Amino acid sequence: MYVIVGLGNPGRQYEHTRHNAGFDAVDLLADKYNIDVDTKKFKALYGKGIIEGQKVVLAKPLTFMNLSGESVRELVDFYKIDEKDELIVLYDDISLEPGQLRLRGKGSAGGHNGIKSIIAHLGHQEFKRVKIGVGEKPPGFDLADYVLGRFPKSQREAFADALERAAGAVVSIMTDGMDAAMNSFNKKA
């Protein structure tokens, strides 16, 4: 079983912002595989289903980004998964161009507060990630304002494509393994 967690912030004001890239990717997977992500538990909205023959739990923490680890810890404990192999986290990354993906099997938080929280609650950095590029903040912009903003029209198509590829990357991780998925998806868009 895989627990697939998309990071973001709950509430209408945050829908489709850069920081909610993880939520958007989970929503896409949910739509594609007919999984209802509408049950409240584990400090998240979650749903169970099957993706390409694999049992999955799709989850969107309701803790707000900086406390995402609380929800992830509850999910990992309840489903008794091996988080090093069966946890996949999707989230935004400002160090990647809009639309670019980067898959990693482990690593530091890289300044991302949601990932910092997950690392703190799991006690290690070894879990699979799908980073979705949202682009670097322009000079003079406040980082929080930038990540909580929406994509300009000129970048929406690239971002929609990135969400499709992020969903594909999750499927590839589960069916082909992490190394093969990284080889397929870790290239410029």
Automatic annotation (TrEMBL):
Uppermost EC category: hydrolase
Family matches, as PROSITE patterns: PEPT_TRNA_HYDROL_1, PEPT_TRNA_HYDROL_2
Keyword RNA-binding: yes
GO molecular function: peptidyl-tRNA hydrolase activity; tRNA binding
Reactions catalysed, as given in the entry: an N-acyl-L-alpha-aminoacyl-tRNA + H2O = an N-acyl-L-amino acid + a tRNA + H(+)
Site (Stabilizes the basic form of H active site to accept a proton): D92
Gene Ontology cellular component list: cytoplasm
Compartments, as annotated in UniProt: Cytoplasm
Protein name: Peptidyl-tRNA hydrolase
